[in-house]
From TrEMBL:
Protein name (Swiss-Prot/TrEMBL): Methyltransferase domain-containing protein
Provenance organism: Halosegnis rubeus
Lineage: superkingdom: Archaea
Ranges where the tRNA (adenine(58)-N(1))-methyltransferase catalytic subunit TRM61 C-terminal domain occurs: 70-214
GO cellular component, one term: tRNA (m1A) methyltransferase complex
Keywords attached to this entry: Methyltransferase, S-adenosyl-L-methionine, Transferase, tRNA processing
SUPFAM superfamilies, per the entry: S-adenosyl-L-methionine-dependent methyltransferases
GO molecular function annotations of the record: rRNA (adenine-N6,N6-)-dimethyltransferase activity; tRNA (adenine(58)-N1)-methyltransferase activity
GO biological process: tRNA methylation
InterPro entries assigned to the protein according to its UniProt record, in alphabetical order: rRNA_Ade_Mease_Trfase_CS, SAM-dependent_MTases_sf, TRM61_C, tRNA_MeTrfase_Gcd14
Signal sequence, renumbered to the chain: none
Length: 241
């Protein structure tokens, strides 16, 4: 697991044994470093070691594309209500941000990524986040192995063919198991909604995740004049109890 090394406005995500060179000197991380320790560079610049939180990992983990945003992940965690000991099947690993957040809640994750290079990066990110023991990153298409998968407590999808997996949700999930599908496009969300209804899922709904920042200054308070922050659409459903 890596730690966040903080000094004023400088943050570094480093693992025990790492060596980092910068204008503040050479920082060599001890193998036995613990959160709360102070580590100095060779010229005496001090950094405090901290255990990284979810937002820290989102900012510092290696990326292979556009990861799911924390606002989307928060909605999924809230809708799912899953926790320690539950199992989630995920497809479209990408960077692995969603898997990291799920695993940090004690959830066991099996996640599929078609791109072998992306999958390798995701595995490294699981090690960095300290959740490799709870996330099984598999290289391949989840649709190729659906017949051997069952008994999951939740299903999360971020793939173009998500509807084909939603169609199998009753066989993949325990009774009452939640489904969450992320899509940047409304057309694929509609397809997932129609499929979910066809196979008898309940509580089917799609929401758009929009975030609007507030501005506070001497003249008054109002929404920011910057563009509304659309990220994507989330479709939720559950298997019947």
């Amino acid at each position: 697991m890596s730690y966040l090394f903080v000094r004023e406005n400088r943050e570094l995500l480093l693992a025990p044994g790492d060596r980092h060179e910068s204008d503040l000197g050479v920082l060599e991380v001890p193998e036995d470093v613990q959160p709360g320790d102070t580590v100095e560079t060779h010229i005496g610049e001090a950094f405090e070691a901290r255990e990284p939180r979810g937002p820290d990992l989102f900012d510092h983990l290696d990326r292979t594309g556009a990861p799911m945003m924390p606002r989307d992940i928060g909605l999924i965690l809230g809708e799912f209500g899953l926790g320690d000991g539950d199992r989630v099947l995920d497809a479209g690993t990408g960077t692995g941000i969603l898997s990291v957040y799920l695993a940090r809640h004690g959830i066991e994750v099996v996640t599929y990524e078609r791109d072998a290079d992306f999958a390798d990066v995701a595995r490294e990110n699981m090690e960095t986040a300290g959740v490799a023991d709870r996330v099984d990153v598999r290289t391949g298409d989840v649709t190729d192995g659906l017949d051997s998968l069952s008994g999951f407590d939740g299903l999360t999808l971020d793939t173009g063919d998500a509807a084909s997996v939603v169609a199998q949700a009753p066989d993949l999930l325990v009774p009452g198991g939640p489904v969450a599908v992320y899509s940047p496009f409304i057309e694929s969300s509609r397809e997932c909604v129609e499929t979910a209804r066809e196979v008898g899922l309940v509580g089917v709904e799609t929401v758009e995740t929009i975030q609007r920042e507030m501005t506070f200054d001497n003249r008054g308070s109002r929404p920011s004049t910057r563009g509304v922050g659309h990220t994507g659409y989330l479709t939720f459903a559950r298997t019947p109890i």
